[in-house]
Amino acid sequence: MPIIADAKKFLKETGSPQWQSDYPNIETIAAGIAAEVGYDLCVDHQVAGYAAAIAGIEPTYQVIDGAWTNEQDPYMTIHRMALSSHYRGLHLANFFFSNMISLQAANGIHNFRIDTFKKNAVMQHLAISNGFVERGTIQVDDPIDPSRIAYELNL
What we know:
This is Acetyltransferase. The chain has helices spanning 2-13, 26-34, 92-106, 121-129; strands at 38-43, 46-55, 65-66, 76-83, 111-116, 133-139, 147-154.
């Protein structure tokens, strides 16, 4: 949870309202770990980052102001990517993101989706630099700002 707290603080400092409500909370992270969809990035035996990779239909992606290009193949959604402030600036988020995609591709998943706030320039850059393409806007249950930019990557 200290990594999630670092990410919340970083987002706030960069002007993004993302994660400034009660999400993600300890229940969300614990549920991801229990479901075996949570991944850690470790550096020198220390946890430096966390993200979830969830296979299957994401309910909030069913309605999009835009269009997905691949509606046939199963997809993996990457959620809740966070990096410890102790490791920021080392390009580890890109490394972590790339490794998560590679791991899932090795397991037969070739369609990936993510979403982020309009003011989260860091995640937008990370998505685009990893080959994701903006596909439109989705709506989520968020009391601050329910609109999200949706991205897709097809390998």
